[in-house]
Amino acid sequence: MMLAGKCAVVTGGASPRGIGWAIAMTFAEHGARVAILDLRGPEAAESAAAIGPMHRGFACDVRDPEACRTATAQAAAAFGGLDILVANAGVSEPRKLLDITQEGYDRVVDTSLRGALNMAQAVVPYLLDRGGGSIVAIGSVSGERGGGVMGGAHYSAAKGGVHSLVKAMAREFAAEGIRINAVAPGLIETDLIAGRLDAERRAAVIAATPMGRIGTPAEVAGACLFLTSDLAAYVHGVTLDVNGGLHIH
Amino acid sequence: MPGLLTGRVAIITGAASVRGIGWACGRLFAGEGATLALLDLDAGAAQAAADALGPGHRGLACDVRNAARCEAGVAQVLAEFGRLDILVNNAGVSQPHHLMDSTQDDYDLVFDSSVRGTYNMSRSVVPHFRRQRSGVIVCMGSVAAQRGGGILGGPHYAAAKGAVQAMAKAMARELGPDNVRVNALSPGLVETDLLLGKLTDDGRARAIANTPAGRLARPEDIAGACLFLASDLSSFVTGTVLDVNGGLHIH
Q1: Is the distance from CB of A115 to CB of A37 less than 8 angstroms?
Q2: For the purposes of burial, counting CB atoms within 10 Å of the CB of A195, is it exposed (0-12), middle (13-18) or buried (19 or more)?
Q3: Would A1 be classed as within a structural domain?
Q4: What is the per-residue pLDDT for B98?
Q5: A82: which of A124, A126, A155, A208 fits an S-S bond (Cβ 3.0–4.6 Å)?
């Protein structure tokens, strides 16, 4: 029980085959109460209920700072405070540069990057109330090496922005007892890639991955569990690669 | 809930000092259900450190600079415990000597204990890990490798730790297909006996001022990250250098 008594918010967690939901499940197994925030409020509530009766789901479009503040306040009220944020909500588009639209850019960058900023701004006051806490943002190997997995240049840029945001926030809040880190997954088996990754491309990624396979959402959740737990008490500002060796640098 | 390492057997080198990183890893691993073989230069000190973890753990004499001793140590662990799952290449020597103050012997001592030791021990366990198609290796790097010293170790120490980190990455590439994961830890300044008498009050205050977390690391901090890398929580993590530096080096 690595998170006994902790209260966590996970954004983008409604899909039962997604990374956010796996994080929520893992945190719950380790004793945390979890609030799942998602665009789809009813699905968020259903997913939370499926994990167990102590958990909650709330509607939240992370692109909207007011919505973030409202949902965060609801979660804090339900649990009596907050200790952990996982900024997971994100959108990927596998587009070539010349095919990226302004709308696509806004959707991809605003969900990942502005969403992480909005949620951090909403949650940090609650962590300060507790005298500390932990934030993890989900980046991507794509943000480290400029794509090469799936997702266009706008996705790479958004995730690279998330990594930098995390490092800057880590510097600012370490003295307040808030640890802030990122996880950079490689290719992970989720609905995000189902139907979008053709067999040839999939085989190419696997061939380039020393561990010879695609990762699972639970494996990303394991890294998030570590970073939010006391095992990572002295870990600040890192981007933790969970990529099976695809990007060793 | 079972421990993170229930039923696993782990070797940790350089683990005889109960105030050191190696022993802290051993204590945390034991608390998570692992059986430990602690290797160190002196058999008595190694066994005493193992006994301090509780019953059932083993201390063995092993100078990791000696390939034959490493192979014999690993063979003995396999004979006694019947399995081996984890190797922590922790043994190392730090020296604060400046470039012109270190000797050829200093260079040999620092390189051979860290780099050749990691090489020898990894080569001793890999045939077994390959046969069972699983295994985990954690190597001990240093923030000194990433920033070119600047804290305590001299250039030869920074270079040795850089070599360890590079070796960990290369082994990760090579052993990934065998389902063997290899990672390195990169600690900042840790409160251990290595520091005693080597760090002035002034240097200590400066190191803390440069660390966003506002304190030096404790051996337990490094052990926590080591446990993550040794456990199934990191089952898709290989070839990384995990910073445990309190934000001293955010890059």
Answers
A1: no
A2: exposed
A3: no
A4: 92
A5: A126
A231 to B225: CB separation less than 8 angstroms, yes or no: yes
CB contact under 8 A, A222 and B235: yes
Give Cβ neighbours of residue A101 (< 8 Å, ≥ 6 apart). none
A22 is written with which tokens? Answer: 């796996």
Using one digit for the tens of pLDDT, what is the confidence trace for B59-76?
999 999 999 999 999 999
B contact set with A (CB within 8 A): 1, 169, 172-177, 179, 181, 188, 212-214, 217-218, 220-222, 224-225, 227-228, 232-240, 242-247, 250
Average pLDDT over residues B55-61: 98
Q: Is residue A249 part of a domain?
A: no
Model pLDDT, residue A194: 74
- Number of domains present in the structure of chain A: 1
**Is residue A159 included in any domain, yes or no?**
yes
Q: Report the CATH number that the domain containing residue A99 is assigned in CATH.
A: 3.40.50.720
In total, the C-beta contacts within 8 angstroms joining chain A to chain B are: 119
Which domain range does residue A78 map to?
Answer: 7-240
Residue of B233, B242, B244 to mutate when probing chain A, most A C-beta within 10 A? B233
Domains of chain B: 9-244 (3.40.50.720)
Nearest CA in chain B to A176: B213
Region for B135 from its dihedrals, namely left if φ exceeds 0, alpha if ψ lies in -120 to 50, beta otherwise: left
Distance CA A152, CA A131 (A): 39
pLDDT for residue B122 is more than 90: yes
What are phi and psi for residue A101, nearest 5 degrees?
Answer: -100, 165
Q: Which residues of B are catalytic?
A: 157
- Residues of chain A in contact with residue B239, where contact means CB-CB under 8 angstroms, are 210, 241, 245, 248
**Domain presence at residue A209:** yes
